[in-house]
Amino acid sequence: KQIDLYNWNGLIGVYPNVSGVKIGSTEDAGKTTIVTSERGGKTLMVVLLGAPGIIERDLWASQLLDAGFEQTLGLPPIAITEEQLREKYSTWEYFN
User: Fold this and answer.
1) What is the pTM of this model?
2) Contact status, residue 61 vs residue 18, Cβ threshold 8 Å
3) H or E element that contains 18
4) Which of 20, 22, 63, 90 has its CA 20 to 30 A from that of 5?
């Protein structure tokens, strides 16, 4: 029997070396995510709560990763765009 498992983390395959740890959504917390990314031999984790939507959730998480890598390693930002995320979301078969 085949079971399809869908991943709703918009940064996987868009932001370099992202591991999707957990996404979620509740009325009180809003859209949430925990992601890690490795660049320059260092792994950073972002825990984000309170985003009003998934675009903001993924954009804000990528901006936090960019800030962390820039401040700790001097690496340039990846600067993920809303267009890149919307393109990723368009590949999700059951995304509305």
Assistant:
1) 0.89
2) no
3) strand 18-26
4) 63
Place of tokens 């509740």: 26
Which pLDDT tens digit goes with each residue over 50-83?
A: 999 999 999 999 999 999 999 999 999 999 999 9
How far apart are the C-alpha atoms of 90 and 96, rounded to whole Å?
A: 9
Q: Note the pLDDT of residue 31.
A: 94
pLDDT at 8: 82
| Sheet of 42-51, strand order | 18-26, 30-39, 42-51
What is the three-state SS of 35-92? EEEEECCEEEEEEEEEECCHHHHHHHHHHHHHHHHHHHHCCCCCCCCHHHHHHHHCCC
Let me know: does 43 contact 36? Beta carbons within 8 Å: yes
CB-based contact 37:64 (threshold 8 Å):
no
